Amino acid sequence: xxxxxxxxxxxxxxxxxxxxxxxxxxxxxxxxxxxxxxxxxxxxxxxxxxxxxxxxxxxxxxxxxxxxxxxxxxxxxxxxxxxxxxxxxxxxxxxxxxxxxxxxxxxxxxxxxxxxxxxxxxxxxxxxxxxxxxxxxxxxxxxxxxxxxxxxxxxxxxxxxxxxxxxxxxxxxxxxxxxxxxxxxxxxxxxxxxxxxxxxxxxxxxxxxxxxxxxxxxxxxxxxxxxxxxxxxxxxxxxxxxxxxxxxxxxxxxxxxxxxxxxxxxxxxxxxxxxxxxxxxxxxxxxxxxxxxxxxxxxxxxxxxxxxxxxxxxxxxxxxxxxxxxxxxxxxxxxxxxxxxxxxxxxxxxxxxxxxxxxxxxxxxxxxxxxxxxxxxxxxxxxxxxxxxxxxxxxxxxxxxxxxxxxxxxxxxxxxxxxxxxxxxxxxxxxxxxxxxxxxxxxxxxxxxxxxxxxxxxxxxxxxxxxxxxxxxxxxxxxxxxxxxxxxxxxxxxxxxxxxxxxxxxxxx
Length: 509
Hints:
Layout (H helix, E strand, L loop, with lengths): L9 H10 L8 E2 L10 H18 L1 E3 L3 H10 L2 E3 L2 E3 L4 H9 L4 E3 L8 E3 L3 E4 L7 E4 L3 E4 L2 H13 L18 H15 L11 H14 L11 E6 L4 E2 L1 H12 L3 E9 L8 H22 L5 E4 L1 E5 L6 E2 L3 H17 L3 E2 L12 H17 L3 E2 L5 E2 L4 E3 H17 L7 H4 L1 H6 L10 H6 L15 H6 L5 H15 L7 H17 L6
Parallel strand pairs: 2-11, 7-17, 8-19, 10-12, 12-13, 12-14, 13-16
Antiparallel strand pairs: 1-7, 2-4, 3-4, 5-6, 8-9, 14-15, 18-19
Helix pairs in contact: 2-9, 4-9, 5-6, 6-7, 6-18, 7-8, 8-9, 9-10, 10-11, 11-12, 12-17
């Protein structure tokens, strides 16, 4: 057996990496052209099919007379709760007023993000009722877990946005937890965040908390981008429409997303999923523009395949990737930002299945040019759980994607022609001036991968990637320091929350 190495081994190397400044951008600016899978003729056919669905089938509007009135005034045909749209109406409304690019302002202006165009924004997991870690396994999420993931996201240089319901704090009443969640985003981070969408009044509370957190006046700035899901197939319900209406009226951005499990909420075929998704999204985006022309809106798509044997959702398969590429192209043709993708897996633990399914989702996300990437870190168990170790492992891959999205460096330094010409054939480049000038930044350095010899790895504990990630998230939380916030603003936030909680009953539905 080889002699045991001293404490200056892996621990020392990691400390040196942590001490080095990490290149950080508030969002990715892609130099890679988006990958196009479908011809112009094919995209036009899918748009035609979506218009046919809107014209012949329409969408059902549940329990929102105001939405029916807005659609009727815009020229749609109303038959009870069913709304049918003349061919091209929704597209015209959206293209006439929805912005192609907008800025979501953060409490710290250095963390403002561009949504749309050549920008990609990585956002953590959303909506999981369970959490998982190697120490305690799977359990219900608590407010402490929620705060932990907000802190970990704040510390992650390649997560550009704090997210929204990163997990569901089930130890707090449903009627009140939105207040604690929005406060956590404002207090424990200074990145952009998402508001509550589980009721119109909770969206209004989110707007008010944001107003306070941003110093008392939003000045018509967009400071939240929030998730509005269709009830596929072809239904928009009161809860989502009320939240969208509240946010749009306040000039806050809405991500209009059909949530489709192919074979259950849509046909099994990718082209069918695309046409239905486009129809549902067009109806939702039209509603937002009818509430307030020019309000920021994001065209969202979340489509997964399913096991035809069990009905369980599956991830990392080819069909959702094809849908993703196609929907991204349709969003560019429509002229609005696009949301999709992430690091998705059906695995229950951070294992090999989680790794390859997440990679099979994340790579198409970047290649397709997705603008707002929800679920970029932490997703496990088809979204039912967020994993502490999975979060760290995913963030490591986001660093890789940040480098990949820059494309090929063709600067003089990147070409390295002088270095090649100055080096005789057969002599290595290890000691050249060019190598010495670039060795610190030449390659992305993984914080969790182990590239040492077998003997060194064995002597240092024989840890797998998840075990190494376990130590990293604990270390980061131990070293976390909150961003500054004005004490008067913090006091006003707490006062508003206390007052609202006193007015609200404790309900868990």
